[in-house]
Amino acid sequence: MTALKKRAQALENQFARQAEIQFKARVRGSKMVGRWAAYTMGLDDVEAYARTVAVKQVVEPHRLLEQLRQDFSSAGVAVSDADIDSRIHQFIEQATDEIFAGQ
């Protein structure tokens, strides 16, 4: 294998690893958001709701904020879009840090 092919392979491997970490962080962070939302709404099955939120993040990531807003509204809990968005970013960042720390 030539040096150029080795370098190309290394870059492809790096890109794949970064994509994998990003995916795992978004799923883990979404579960954290789901737990926070479930506790805030006073739901009984926190983990089931967290899994639902994580699946929503994977299937339709652009609709997660809208879904959480609707769920809070249905539960009669007032939470601003800015707070929800802030929590999403905070938990995804925390999940990324945990993954890099090997947790």
UniProtKB/TrEMBL annotation:
<dbReference type="InterPro" id="IPR038293">
    <property type="entry name" value="ATPase_inh_sub_z_sf"/>
</dbReference>
<protein>
    <recommendedName>
        <fullName>DUF1476 domain-containing protein</fullName>
    </recommendedName>
</protein>
<dbReference type="InterPro" id="IPR009945">
    <property type="entry name" value="ATPase_inh_sub_z"/>
</dbReference>
<dbReference type="Pfam" id="PF07345">
    <property type="entry name" value="ATPaseInh_sub_z"/>
</dbReference>
